[in-house]
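Q: Could you fold this chain for me?
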Amino acid sequence: DSSGGTELFGFMPQALLSNLPELKQNAYTGSHLYGLDGALTVWHSDSNNDGVVNSSERVILFFGMRRGGEQYFALDVSDLNSPHLLWRIDPTTSGFAALGQSWSRPSIITVNWSGSKRKVLVFGGGYDPAADSQDTRTTHASGNMIYMIDPVTGQLLWSAGKSSQHNAVAAMEYAIPSDLRVIDADANGIADRLYVADLGGQVWRVKFDEATFGPGTGVTIKRIASLADDSVAGNRRFFYAPTVYYSNSA
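A: Sure. Below is the predicted structure, expressed as structure tokens.
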């Protein structure tokens, strides 16, 4: 936009409309009023790789609410003068009952889904506010999941976690508010594994079999580290994506 920074549109979720009276009063109440607080992920389906939104190409913004709530959104901003909401996900959406506060930044990745390359959106299950008052490691009722969805429709494609319908993992008992670290180990343009850590001090590796990955198949999930215990001193929590280093030790 070369017009000098003129605002083209704004967006406020319905769930935050109740904040408007307090915002208008602008009175200090002693506590912070959280709004739409999540990081943005931008996806441009740039089929000809020219950096311009041509013909049927789309630009979609994905974001969560972080401390503001338990929802994820997708806004189609292909036409900045006419943006529209594509979808919204919250704990009432089928398959997302365990979704916590939406802290994890969504990542657009390419997987080999049932034999075909497909763009998907992945993110952690979120933060459980109960953790605010937990001095020792305690299991969480929400957030202890990993989700994979269709970026255009918001349809749940795959999940893993304590209560997952696809890959139930009993030891995934702790919330996952962090971003996911996604790896293309063989550099062929298809994601084949991801790494993430949780609020229970556990580090997880999820491996996708490029030949067989699909709904509930072709996935190996392994806890590769447990770095906390149930003592106050051992209550180690992870809020950020792990750094992954690969080396060729021939």
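A (continued): Residues 20-25 form the longest helix (6 residues).
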